[in-house]
Amino acid sequence: MSSEYGVRLDVPRLRRFGARGVPIIELRVSGPTGVFHRVAGICDSGASRTLLSPTTYERLGYVLPATPEWFPTNALTRQIFYVRQPLHLRIPATTGLPVHIAVMGGLTPDIEENLFGADLIEYFALLLTDDHVTFLGDRRT
Amino acid sequence: MKVLLIDESAMVARQLRDRLVAVESSTTGALHAIVDLETDYQLALEKLAEPEAYDAVIIEPYPFDQPAEMVRRIFRRLRATRTITIAVTSAFTVERCVETMRAGARDFFVKSRPINDLVTAILSLILRESETVGVPDLDARWVGRQLMRLSASYPGQWIAVAKRRLLAHAETRAELIEMLKDCPPEPPPKVWRLPVEWGNDDVF
After folding, report:
1. For residue B25, what is the domain's CATH number?
2. d(Cα A66, Cα A82) in Å, to the nearest integer?
3. Residue of B nearest to A34 (CA)
4. How much is the ipTM here?
5. Of A61, A78, B46, B199, which residue is least crowded by CB atoms under 10 Å?
6. Are B48 and A75 in contact (CB under 8 A)?
7. Domains by residue range for chain A, with CATH
């Protein structure tokens, strides 16, 4: 099996959070009105799914249902409860057209930072370097 | 949130940028604001060439040493892309304020205001406006509604969509781009990578 990939989408890590070590990147996420907004979040392959924090999902226009169905997910220190929400993500490409993907993400009041989670790995392998997070796809075999 | 600050005075622009970033991160923190500076209006216009380059632009609409036509062109471009535009000026008159608002600015501030007041007003305006700004992506909506059908028909494949119509599908992005060479360039197609499976709760 080769380690070469046919698709490389480089997303710069936000320098402002460099001191914290965790890779924070910016993708575009669409709200219920179909408008894509920039959303910054931790790219964490250890998180089981993409989760949006209250400040972000409210800005995108999502409203938690009056009687939400909560799903649990285990975090490092405790369980996080979230409401499932399909999300459309737009990943910028340095050259050529940006790439869109859909993930079954979640909205949760339990976190303060957005998470781009392991659901991205359903589409891409992630390569982390000091400057970039690279989405690798279309493995050449 | 990406903001472009256009002002011919580098010192004023830097001061405003530093206060914006400091106040934003210490208060709301919701924007994760990245603020770029530009003192040359021609270069600013070039930076705004990509429609989604910036979410908000803060501009001195009456610079001393920049051609007025350049300012007008910047405003025209911002208006076309519905970017949040905020005028911050040291040259206040009522006529200029009216002219700037008509050109597409969402608000008009004078630089003589205390800097913390000014920055707070700008940030709350950006936050408020960012909830409503933007053009709905009708192709994304269409794909969202068809996602189960599309992922069943083309699991794991790449698709291209324009005007709510499937243009092409392929196993790899390179193949898809090759197929798009024969398609009309306008409107530019949008590219999706489809999931292998969608809506199956067992996988969660």
Report:
1. 3.40.50.2300
2. 14
3. B136
4. 0.88
5. A78
6. no
7. 5-139 (2.40.70.10)
Indicate the DSSP class of residue B5. E
Distance CA A30, CA B14 (A): 32
Domain co-membership, B49 together with B87: yes
Q: Between the CA of residue A19 and those of A129, B82, B150, what are the distances in Å? A: 14, 34, 42
- CB B147 within 8 Å of CB A102: yes
Residue numbers of the domain that contains B146: 138-198
**Phi then psi dihedrals of residue A28, to 5 deg:** -105, 135
Q: With beta carbons less than 8 A apart as the criterion, state whether A23 and A133 touch.
A: yes
Residue B170 and residue B73 share a domain: no
* Boundary (domain end) residue, out of B72, B107, B130: B130
Assess contact for B86 and B105: CB atoms under 8 A: yes
Q: Read off the pLDDT of residues B97-122 as tens digits, 9 standing for 90 and up.
A: 999 999 989 999 999 888 888 988 98
Task: For CA atoms A11, B131, B5, B116, give the dihedral sign.
Answer: negative
Distance from C-alpha of B86 to C-alpha of B56, rounded to nearest angstrom: 8
Residues A64-92 as b or e (16 or more Cβ within 10 Å = b) = beeeeeeeebeeeeeebebbbbebbbbbb
H helix intervals, chain B: 10-26, 41-47, 68-81, 94-103, 115-130, 138-153, 173-180
pLDDT 10s digits, B30-82: 566 778 899 999 999 998 887 677 888 999 999 988 888 999 999 998 887 77
Domain membership of residue B203 (yes or no) is no
Residues B123 and B29 in one domain: yes
> Which candidate in B173, B180, B186, B203 is best for mutational testing of the A interface (most A CBs within 10 A)?
B173
Q: What's the CA gap between A31 and A108, in Å, rounded?
A: 15
Task: Give the total number of structural domains in chain B.
Answer: 2
CA A62 – CA A58 distance, rounded (Å)? 5
- Shortest alpha-carbon distance between residue B80 and chain A (Å): 16
Taking an 8 Å cut-off on Cβ atoms, the answer to whether B189 and A101 are in contact is no
- Rounded to two decimals, what is the model's pTM? 0.72
Q: Which among B130, B164, B180 is the end of a domain?
A: B130
Contact B131 A86 (CB under 8 A): no
In a domain? residue B69: yes
**B71 and B161 fall within a common domain:** no
